[in-house]
Amino acid sequence: MKPGDALVVIDPQVDFCPGGALAVADGDAVMAPIAALSAAFATVVVTQDWHPAGHSSFASSHAGAAPFSTMTMAYGEQVLWPDHCIQRSAGAGFHPAVIPAVDRARLILRKGINPAVDSYSAFFENDKVTRTGLAGALRDLGVRRCVFVGLAYDFCVAWSALDAVREGFGAVVLKDHARAIGMPVSGGRTTVDVAEAGFAAAGVVLG
Ligand SMILES: [Zn+2]
């Protein structure tokens, strides 16, 4: 790790781990390794998906919509998820094994608070225009490169890493400290393939 590096831990929450409302397979396996890794970084940031009840990204908010289907919103296509990470619910809490990393965090950034717009990325809401404030905070802290870990690799980690580059930061994704949802998309590909094509095009380094 270099001066100017920040560890950005994406959504290490109970609902994204096995047994949770939007479980990522094997997601709990990365929590203790992330906690250990965080000790090597002077700057640690943790994001927390933090939705109001009835959020527009929930399938339950749209009559007849099934979880994991897609819907066209005013800001573009949106996957509709099971209800998850509702503010102050147990599922929105951090996984117990990652707490040492949360304790070291200079900043806990909550996202997905806007009822009408989801936020996969730590930097922008899904309209790709509304900023979360993270880029300015990182610049204030002298951060030049972000190292991303957490959940889910092909959604919130990927969108955050791509937006880090867009904001002028170097971006590294540690794949062994992340786990993917892996939804099928057209052409026999998955959301993992889409994410990794995006990484290659943008210069995100896979570590
Ligand atoms: Zn969410």
UniProtKB/TrEMBL annotation:
Q: Which UniProt keywords apply?
A: Hydrolase, Metal-binding, Pyridine nucleotide biosynthesis
Give the pathway annotation.
Cofactor biosynthesis; nicotinate biosynthesis; nicotinate from nicotinamide: step 1/1
Enumerate the Pfam families for this protein.
Isochorismatase (PF00857)
Q: Superkingdom of the source?
A: Bacteria
Q: What InterPro entries does the entry give?
A: Isochorismatase-like_dom, Isochorismatase-like_sf, Isochorismatase_Nicotinamidase
Q: Where is the Isochorismatase-like domain?
A: 6-176
| MF annotations from Gene Ontology | metal ion binding; nicotinamidase activity
Q: What is this enzyme's EC?
A: 3.5.1.19
Q: Which biological processes are named by the entry's GO terms? A: pyridine nucleotide biosynthetic process
Name of the top EC class for this enzyme: hydrolase
Family classification: Belongs to the isochorismatase family.
Protein name, as recorded: nicotinamidase
